[in-house]
Protein backbone atom coordinates (compact mmCIF):
# COMPACT_ATOMS: atom_id res chain seq x y z
CA UNK A 1 0.00 0.00 0.00
CA UNK A 2 2.89 2.36 0.81
CA UNK A 3 6.27 2.01 -0.89
CA UNK A 4 9.51 2.98 0.81
CA UNK A 5 9.64 6.09 -1.37
CA UNK A 6 6.12 7.10 -0.35
CA UNK A 7 6.97 6.67 3.33
CA UNK A 8 10.08 8.82 2.93
CA UNK A 9 8.05 11.52 1.13
CA UNK A 10 5.60 11.48 4.03
CA UNK A 11 8.06 11.32 6.95
CA UNK A 12 10.97 13.56 5.89
CA UNK A 13 8.88 16.76 5.47
CA UNK A 14 7.23 16.05 8.82
CA UNK A 15 10.62 15.83 10.53
CA UNK A 16 11.75 19.09 8.94
CA UNK A 17 8.46 20.73 9.93
CA UNK A 18 8.82 19.59 13.55
CA UNK A 19 12.42 20.80 13.66
CA UNK A 20 11.38 24.14 12.18
CA UNK A 21 8.66 24.60 14.79
CA UNK A 22 11.14 24.13 17.64
CA UNK A 23 13.91 26.33 16.23
CA UNK A 24 11.55 29.14 15.25
CA UNK A 25 9.91 28.92 18.67
CA UNK A 26 13.30 29.38 20.29
CA UNK A 27 14.03 32.37 18.02
CA UNK A 28 10.62 33.82 18.90
CA UNK A 29 11.41 33.61 22.62
CA UNK A 30 14.84 35.17 22.13
CA UNK A 31 13.30 38.15 20.28
CA UNK A 32 10.66 38.70 22.95
CA UNK A 33 13.33 38.48 25.65
CA UNK A 34 14.85 41.70 24.34
CA UNK A 35 11.80 43.55 25.71
CA UNK A 36 12.59 42.59 29.30
CA UNK A 37 12.16 39.88 31.93
CA UNK A 38 8.51 40.72 32.61
CA UNK A 39 7.69 40.29 28.91
CA UNK A 40 9.45 36.97 28.46
CA UNK A 41 7.99 35.69 31.76
CA UNK A 42 4.46 36.65 30.72
CA UNK A 43 4.88 35.04 27.30
CA UNK A 44 6.32 31.83 28.79
CA UNK A 45 3.38 31.50 31.20
CA UNK A 46 0.83 32.05 28.44
CA UNK A 47 2.62 29.59 26.18
CA UNK A 48 1.93 26.87 28.75
CA UNK A 49 -1.77 27.76 28.57
CA UNK A 50 -1.61 27.90 24.77
CA UNK A 51 -0.05 24.45 24.55
CA UNK A 52 -2.79 23.12 26.82
CA UNK A 53 -5.55 24.50 24.56
CA UNK A 54 -3.85 23.97 21.21
CA UNK A 55 -3.62 20.26 22.00
CA UNK A 56 -7.41 20.20 21.85
CA UNK A 57 -7.29 21.46 18.26
CA UNK A 58 -4.56 18.96 17.41
CA UNK A 59 -6.67 16.14 18.86
CA UNK A 60 -9.71 17.17 16.78
CA UNK A 61 -7.47 17.24 13.71
CA UNK A 62 -6.28 13.74 14.62
CA UNK A 63 -9.92 12.61 14.79
CA UNK A 64 -10.49 13.97 11.30
CA UNK A 65 -7.26 12.39 10.02
CA UNK A 66 -8.22 8.96 11.36
CA UNK A 67 -11.70 9.09 9.80
CA UNK A 68 -10.54 10.37 6.41
CA UNK A 69 -7.60 7.91 6.31
CA UNK A 70 -9.94 5.00 7.00
CA UNK A 71 -12.38 6.18 4.31
CA UNK A 72 -9.50 6.47 1.83
CA UNK A 73 -8.56 2.89 2.70
CA UNK A 74 -12.19 1.90 2.03
CA UNK A 75 -11.98 3.81 -1.28
CA UNK A 76 -14.93 5.96 -0.16
CA UNK A 77 -13.58 9.35 -1.16
CA UNK A 78 -17.12 10.72 -1.18
CA UNK A 79 -17.43 10.12 2.57
CA UNK A 80 -13.83 11.25 3.10
CA UNK A 81 -14.59 14.61 1.44
CA UNK A 82 -17.77 15.00 3.47
CA UNK A 83 -15.62 14.36 6.55
CA UNK A 84 -13.37 17.26 5.53
CA UNK A 85 -16.33 19.65 5.67
CA UNK A 86 -17.46 18.30 9.03
CA UNK A 87 -13.95 18.53 10.49
CA UNK A 88 -13.83 22.19 9.48
CA UNK A 89 -17.22 22.83 11.10
CA UNK A 90 -16.27 21.09 14.36
CA UNK A 91 -12.85 22.78 14.53
CA UNK A 92 -14.34 26.21 13.89
CA UNK A 93 -17.12 25.78 16.47
CA UNK A 94 -14.88 24.38 19.22
CA UNK A 95 -12.07 26.90 18.67
CA UNK A 96 -14.41 29.90 18.65
CA UNK A 97 -15.98 28.69 21.91
CA UNK A 98 -12.54 28.21 23.50
CA UNK A 99 -11.44 31.63 22.21
CA UNK A 100 -14.46 33.33 23.78
CA UNK A 101 -14.06 31.55 27.13
CA UNK A 102 -10.32 32.26 27.23
CA UNK A 103 -10.81 35.98 26.63
CA UNK A 104 -13.69 36.18 29.09
CA UNK A 105 -11.86 34.26 31.85
CA UNK A 106 -8.30 35.39 31.05
CA UNK A 107 -7.42 36.71 34.51
CA UNK A 108 -8.94 33.83 36.53
CA UNK A 109 -7.22 31.31 34.24
CA UNK A 110 -3.79 32.82 34.87
CA UNK A 111 -4.35 33.22 38.62
CA UNK A 112 -5.66 29.66 38.99
CA UNK A 113 -2.72 28.09 37.14
CA UNK A 114 0.11 30.28 38.37
CA UNK A 115 -1.13 31.91 41.58
CA UNK A 116 0.00 35.40 42.52
CA UNK A 117 2.40 36.76 39.91
CA UNK A 118 3.98 40.20 39.74
CA UNK A 119 1.80 42.98 38.25
CA UNK A 120 4.08 43.69 35.26
CA UNK A 121 4.27 39.97 34.42
CA UNK A 122 0.48 39.69 34.73
CA UNK A 123 0.00 42.69 32.45
CA UNK A 124 2.20 41.14 29.75
CA UNK A 125 0.53 37.76 30.16
CA UNK A 126 -2.98 39.20 29.82
CA UNK A 127 -2.12 41.08 26.61
CA UNK A 128 -0.42 38.04 25.10
CA UNK A 129 -3.23 35.67 26.12
CA UNK A 130 -6.02 37.79 24.59
CA UNK A 131 -4.20 38.20 21.27
CA UNK A 132 -3.20 34.53 21.26
CA UNK A 133 -6.82 33.53 21.83
CA UNK A 134 -7.89 35.50 18.75
CA UNK A 135 -5.66 33.23 16.68
CA UNK A 136 -7.17 29.96 17.98
CA UNK A 137 -9.82 29.56 15.23
CA UNK A 138 -7.24 30.15 12.49
CA UNK A 139 -4.79 27.73 14.07
CA UNK A 140 -7.50 25.09 14.59
CA UNK A 141 -8.59 25.28 10.96
CA UNK A 142 -4.97 25.17 9.77
CA UNK A 143 -4.35 22.06 11.91
CA UNK A 144 -7.43 20.44 10.38
CA UNK A 145 -6.29 21.24 6.86
CA UNK A 146 -2.79 19.94 7.61
CA UNK A 147 -4.25 16.69 8.96
CA UNK A 148 -6.27 16.26 5.76
CA UNK A 149 -3.17 16.66 3.57
CA UNK A 150 -1.32 14.11 5.73
CA UNK A 151 -4.26 11.73 5.27
CA UNK A 152 -3.58 11.94 1.54
CA UNK A 153 0.08 11.15 2.19
CA UNK A 154 1.11 14.69 1.26
CA UNK A 155 3.15 16.32 4.03
CA UNK A 156 5.17 18.56 1.70
CA UNK A 157 2.32 21.06 1.45
CA UNK A 158 2.20 21.55 5.21
CA UNK A 159 5.99 21.91 5.27
CA UNK A 160 5.88 24.70 2.68
CA UNK A 161 3.08 26.50 4.51
CA UNK A 162 4.90 26.06 7.82
CA UNK A 163 7.99 27.70 6.33
CA UNK A 164 5.89 30.63 5.09
CA UNK A 165 4.08 30.95 8.43
CA UNK A 166 7.27 30.93 10.49
CA UNK A 167 9.17 33.32 8.21
CA UNK A 168 6.25 35.77 8.33
CA UNK A 169 6.14 35.38 12.13
CA UNK A 170 9.83 36.18 12.58
CA UNK A 171 9.74 39.14 10.18
CA UNK A 172 6.61 40.41 11.91
CA UNK A 173 8.29 40.09 15.30
CA UNK A 174 11.33 42.01 14.10
CA UNK A 175 9.21 44.86 12.71
CA UNK A 176 6.66 45.13 15.51
CA UNK A 177 9.06 44.58 18.42
CA UNK A 178 12.21 46.39 17.28
CA UNK A 179 10.81 49.05 14.90
CA UNK A 180 7.41 49.90 16.38
CA UNK A 181 8.39 48.90 19.96
CA UNK A 182 5.08 47.09 20.54
CA UNK A 183 6.64 44.54 22.89
CA UNK A 184 4.52 41.54 23.84
CA UNK A 185 1.58 42.82 21.77
CA UNK A 186 3.83 42.92 18.70
CA UNK A 187 4.87 39.29 19.16
CA UNK A 188 1.26 38.18 19.58
CA UNK A 189 -0.01 40.19 16.58
CA UNK A 190 2.74 38.69 14.43
CA UNK A 191 1.69 35.16 15.46
CA UNK A 192 -1.96 36.03 14.83
CA UNK A 193 -1.26 37.30 11.31
CA UNK A 194 0.96 34.31 10.40
CA UNK A 195 -1.73 31.85 11.56
CA UNK A 196 -4.41 33.72 9.61
CA UNK A 197 -2.25 33.50 6.50
CA UNK A 198 -1.61 29.77 6.97
CA UNK A 199 -5.34 29.16 7.47
CA UNK A 200 -6.23 31.01 4.26
CA UNK A 201 -3.56 29.22 2.19
CA UNK A 202 -4.38 25.68 3.29
CA UNK A 203 -8.15 26.24 3.00
CA UNK A 204 -7.68 27.71 -0.48
CA UNK A 205 -5.75 24.61 -1.55
CA UNK A 206 -8.47 22.31 -0.17
CA UNK A 207 -11.12 24.15 -2.21
CA UNK A 208 -9.55 22.62 -5.34
CA UNK A 209 -11.99 19.85 -6.43
CA UNK A 210 -9.22 18.06 -8.34
CA UNK A 211 -7.55 16.96 -5.11
CA UNK A 212 -8.38 13.52 -3.75
CA UNK A 213 -9.73 15.15 -0.58
CA UNK A 214 -11.23 18.61 -0.80
CA UNK A 215 -13.84 20.90 0.72
CA UNK A 216 -17.26 20.32 -0.85
CA UNK A 217 -18.61 23.73 -1.79
CA UNK A 218 -22.10 24.49 -0.56
CA UNK A 219 -22.24 21.51 1.82
CA UNK A 220 -21.76 23.23 5.17
CA UNK A 221 -24.68 21.80 7.14
CA UNK A 222 -23.78 19.56 10.10
CA UNK A 223 -23.70 15.83 9.36
CA UNK A 224 -24.11 14.44 12.86
CA UNK A 225 -23.12 10.90 11.87
CA UNK A 226 -19.71 12.08 10.67
CA UNK A 227 -19.33 14.60 13.49
CA UNK A 228 -19.97 11.83 16.00
CA UNK A 229 -17.23 9.71 14.38
CA UNK A 230 -14.75 12.61 14.47
CA UNK A 231 -15.57 13.38 18.10
CA UNK A 232 -15.31 9.68 19.00
CA UNK A 233 -11.60 9.99 18.17
CA UNK A 234 -11.14 13.66 18.99
CA UNK A 235 -12.69 13.91 22.47
CA UNK A 236 -10.66 11.12 24.13
CA UNK A 237 -7.51 12.38 22.40
CA UNK A 238 -8.29 15.93 23.59
CA UNK A 239 -8.73 14.77 27.18
CA UNK A 240 -5.57 12.70 26.98
CA UNK A 241 -3.43 15.49 25.50
CA UNK A 242 -4.82 18.22 27.72
CA UNK A 243 -4.36 16.22 30.92
CA UNK A 244 -0.86 15.28 29.79
CA UNK A 245 0.04 18.96 29.42
CA UNK A 246 -1.68 19.77 32.72
CA UNK A 247 0.40 17.03 34.33
CA UNK A 248 3.54 18.65 32.94
CA UNK A 249 2.47 21.96 34.48
CA UNK A 250 2.02 20.23 37.85
CA UNK A 251 5.44 18.60 37.54
CA UNK A 252 7.03 21.98 36.77
CA UNK A 253 5.31 23.40 39.86
CA UNK A 254 6.94 20.62 41.92
CA UNK A 255 10.38 21.48 40.49
CA UNK A 256 9.93 25.14 41.44
CA UNK A 257 10.29 24.06 45.09
CA UNK A 258 13.84 22.80 44.46
CA UNK A 259 15.50 26.16 43.87
CA UNK A 260 16.84 28.22 40.97
CA UNK A 261 19.63 25.82 39.99
CA UNK A 262 17.26 22.91 39.47
CA UNK A 263 14.66 25.06 37.70
CA UNK A 264 17.32 26.29 35.25
CA UNK A 265 18.71 22.78 34.71
CA UNK A 266 15.22 21.43 34.07
CA UNK A 267 14.50 24.17 31.51
CA UNK A 268 17.78 23.54 29.65
CA UNK A 269 17.27 19.78 29.59
CA UNK A 270 13.71 20.20 28.29
CA UNK A 271 14.98 22.33 25.40
CA UNK A 272 17.66 19.82 24.39
CA UNK A 273 15.52 16.74 24.95
CA UNK A 274 12.81 18.00 22.61
CA UNK A 275 15.33 17.72 19.78
CA UNK A 276 15.96 14.05 20.56
CA UNK A 277 12.32 12.96 20.32
CA UNK A 278 11.50 15.21 17.36
CA UNK A 279 11.82 12.42 14.72
CA UNK A 280 9.50 10.22 16.78
CA UNK A 281 6.85 12.92 16.87
CA UNK A 282 7.03 13.21 13.08
CA UNK A 283 6.73 9.45 12.53
CA UNK A 284 3.82 9.40 14.99
CA UNK A 285 1.90 11.73 12.66
CA UNK A 286 2.73 9.51 9.68
CA UNK A 287 1.53 6.47 11.65
CA UNK A 288 -2.03 7.88 11.68
CA UNK A 289 -2.13 8.10 7.88
CA UNK A 290 -0.48 4.76 7.09
CA UNK A 291 -2.22 2.56 9.66
CA UNK A 292 -5.54 4.39 9.19
CA UNK A 293 -5.62 3.57 5.48
CA UNK A 294 -4.74 -0.08 6.16
CA UNK A 295 -7.49 -0.34 8.78
CA UNK A 296 -10.00 1.28 6.42
CA UNK A 297 -9.13 -1.36 3.82
CA UNK A 298 -9.75 -4.04 6.46
CA UNK A 299 -6.16 -5.33 6.18
CA UNK A 300 -4.96 -5.57 9.78
CA UNK A 301 -1.95 -7.69 8.85
CA UNK A 302 -0.68 -4.82 6.72
CA UNK A 303 -1.55 -2.40 9.52
CA UNK A 304 0.60 -4.37 11.96
CA UNK A 305 3.41 -4.74 9.42
CA UNK A 306 3.53 -1.02 8.63
CA UNK A 307 3.24 -0.07 12.30
CA UNK A 308 6.20 -2.32 13.14
CA UNK A 309 8.15 -0.85 10.21
CA UNK A 310 7.47 2.71 11.33
CA UNK A 311 8.53 1.84 14.88
CA UNK A 312 11.83 0.47 13.51
CA UNK A 313 12.29 3.66 11.49
CA UNK A 314 11.66 5.70 14.63
CA UNK A 315 14.28 3.78 16.58
CA UNK A 316 16.86 4.24 13.82
CA UNK A 317 16.31 7.98 13.33
CA UNK A 318 16.02 8.75 17.04
CA UNK A 319 19.20 6.82 17.80
CA UNK A 320 21.15 8.87 15.26
CA UNK A 321 19.66 12.12 16.59
CA UNK A 322 20.25 11.29 20.25
CA UNK A 323 23.81 10.06 19.73
CA UNK A 324 24.52 13.32 17.87
CA UNK A 325 23.16 15.29 20.84
CA UNK A 326 25.39 13.32 23.23
CA UNK A 327 28.45 14.04 21.09
CA UNK A 328 27.61 17.75 20.79
CA UNK A 329 26.36 18.17 24.37
CA UNK A 330 29.39 20.07 25.76
CA UNK A 331 29.08 22.66 23.00
CA UNK A 332 25.28 22.83 23.15
CA UNK A 333 25.36 23.54 26.88
CA UNK A 334 27.74 26.47 26.40
CA UNK A 335 24.91 28.39 24.73
CA UNK A 336 23.23 28.72 28.14
CA UNK A 337 24.67 31.21 30.60
CA UNK A 338 24.02 29.38 33.89
CA UNK A 339 26.03 28.30 36.93
CA UNK A 340 28.33 25.24 36.84
CA UNK A 341 25.94 23.45 39.23
CA UNK A 342 23.00 23.97 36.85
CA UNK A 343 25.15 22.86 33.92
CA UNK A 344 26.18 19.67 35.71
CA UNK A 345 22.61 18.80 36.65
CA UNK A 346 21.33 19.59 33.14
CA UNK A 347 23.90 17.17 31.72
CA UNK A 348 22.62 14.39 34.00
CA UNK A 349 19.00 15.10 33.07
CA UNK A 350 19.77 15.04 29.34
CA UNK A 351 21.51 11.68 29.71
CA UNK A 352 18.61 10.23 31.74
CA UNK A 353 16.02 11.40 29.21
CA UNK A 354 17.79 10.63 25.95
CA UNK A 355 19.36 7.31 26.95
CA UNK A 356 15.95 6.07 28.13
CA UNK A 357 14.21 7.55 25.09
CA UNK A 358 16.36 5.51 22.69
CA UNK A 359 14.85 2.31 24.10
CA UNK A 360 11.40 3.19 25.46
CA UNK A 361 9.96 6.39 23.94
CA UNK A 362 8.83 5.00 20.53
CA UNK A 363 6.75 2.29 22.20
CA UNK A 364 5.30 4.81 24.67
CA UNK A 365 4.33 7.59 22.25
CA UNK A 366 4.56 6.44 18.61
CA UNK A 367 3.02 2.97 18.90
CA UNK A 368 -0.24 4.23 20.50
CA UNK A 369 -0.88 6.23 17.32
CA UNK A 370 -1.33 2.90 15.55
CA UNK A 371 -4.08 2.09 18.06
CA UNK A 372 -5.64 5.54 17.60
CA UNK A 373 -5.59 5.08 13.82
CA UNK A 374 -7.74 1.98 14.38
CA UNK A 375 -10.15 4.04 16.56
CA UNK A 376 -8.97 2.31 19.76
CA UNK A 377 -8.87 5.67 21.51
CA UNK A 378 -10.54 4.93 24.82
CA UNK A 379 -7.84 2.43 25.75
CA UNK A 380 -5.00 4.81 24.89
CA UNK A 381 -6.76 7.59 26.81
CA UNK A 382 -7.26 5.45 29.93
CA UNK A 383 -3.67 4.20 29.97
CA UNK A 384 -2.18 7.64 29.31
CA UNK A 385 -4.22 9.47 31.94
CA UNK A 386 -3.65 6.81 34.61
CA UNK A 387 0.08 6.66 33.88
CA UNK A 388 0.44 10.44 33.94
CA UNK A 389 -1.31 10.82 37.30
CA UNK A 390 0.03 7.70 39.02
CA UNK A 391 3.62 7.78 37.83
CA UNK A 392 4.57 11.14 36.29
CA UNK A 393 2.84 13.32 38.93
CA UNK A 394 2.59 11.15 42.07
CA UNK A 395 6.03 9.55 41.71
CA UNK A 396 7.52 12.99 40.98
CA UNK A 397 6.16 14.19 44.31
CA UNK A 398 7.34 11.09 46.17
CA UNK A 399 10.81 10.77 44.61
CA UNK A 400 11.53 14.43 43.98
CA UNK A 401 9.96 16.12 46.98
CA UNK A 402 9.40 13.59 49.75
CA UNK A 403 12.60 11.58 49.19
CA UNK A 404 14.69 14.67 48.42
CA UNK A 405 15.92 13.57 44.99
CA UNK A 406 14.89 16.87 43.40
CA UNK A 407 14.78 17.11 39.60
CA UNK A 408 16.54 13.75 39.30
CA UNK A 409 13.61 12.12 41.07
CA UNK A 410 11.13 13.90 38.79
CA UNK A 411 12.90 12.64 35.70
CA UNK A 412 13.17 9.13 37.13
CA UNK A 413 9.38 9.22 37.59
CA UNK A 414 9.06 10.23 33.94
CA UNK A 415 10.98 7.11 32.86
CA UNK A 416 8.70 4.92 35.02
CA UNK A 417 5.74 6.53 33.23
CA UNK A 418 7.27 5.61 29.87
CA UNK A 419 7.92 2.00 30.91
CA UNK A 420 4.32 1.54 32.05
CA UNK A 421 2.92 3.02 28.83
CA UNK A 422 5.27 0.98 26.64
CA UNK A 423 4.34 -2.29 28.37
CA UNK A 424 0.57 -1.78 28.07
CA UNK A 425 0.56 -0.36 24.53
CA UNK A 426 2.81 -3.17 23.27
CA UNK A 427 0.60 -5.79 24.91
CA UNK A 428 -2.48 -4.22 23.35
CA UNK A 429 -0.90 -4.01 19.89
CA UNK A 430 0.23 -7.66 19.95
CA UNK A 431 -3.34 -8.72 20.71
CA UNK A 432 -6.47 -8.32 18.58
CA UNK A 433 -8.85 -6.14 20.66
CA UNK A 434 -7.64 -2.97 18.92
CA UNK A 435 -8.87 -4.42 15.61
CA UNK A 436 -12.56 -4.22 16.57
CA UNK A 437 -13.11 -0.43 16.56
CA UNK A 438 -12.82 0.62 12.90
CA UNK A 439 -15.55 2.80 11.38
What does this structure look like?
By secondary structure, the protein is mostly helical. The chain has two domains: 1-244, no CATH class; 259-439, no CATH class. 84% of the residues lie in helices and 0% in strands. It has 15 helices and no strands. The longest helix is centred in the first third of the chain and has 37 residues, at 37-73. The two termini are 19 Å apart.
In round numbers, the mean pLDDT is 89
Question: Largest sheet, described in full?
Answer: none
Morphology: globular
> What is the overall number of helices?
15
What is the N-to-C succession of helices and strands?
Answer: HHHHHHHHHHHHHHH
What's the Cα radius of gyration?
Answer: 21 Å
Give me the secondary-structure category. mainly alpha
Strand content: under 5%
- Helix fraction by DSSP (H/I, runs of at least 4): over 70%
Number of strands: 0
Q: How many distinct domains?
A: 2
How far the N terminus sits from the C terminus, by CA atoms, comes to 19 Å
Which ranges are low-confidence, i.e. pLDDT below 50, for 5 or more consecutive residues?
none
Q: How is the quaternary structure best described?
A: single chain
Amino acid sequence: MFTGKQLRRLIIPLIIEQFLAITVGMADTMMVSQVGEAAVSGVSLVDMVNVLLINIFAALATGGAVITSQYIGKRRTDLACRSVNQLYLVSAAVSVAIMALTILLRAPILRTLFGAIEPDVMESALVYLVLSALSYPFLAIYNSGAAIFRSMGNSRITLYISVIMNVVNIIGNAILIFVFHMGVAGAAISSLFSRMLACVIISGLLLNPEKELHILRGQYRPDWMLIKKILYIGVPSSLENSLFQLGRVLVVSIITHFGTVQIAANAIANNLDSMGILPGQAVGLAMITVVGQCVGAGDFQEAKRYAAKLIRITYCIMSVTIISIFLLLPWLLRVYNVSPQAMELATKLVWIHNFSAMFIWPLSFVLPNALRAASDVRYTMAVSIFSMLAFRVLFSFILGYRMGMGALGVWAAMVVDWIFRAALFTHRFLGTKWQTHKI
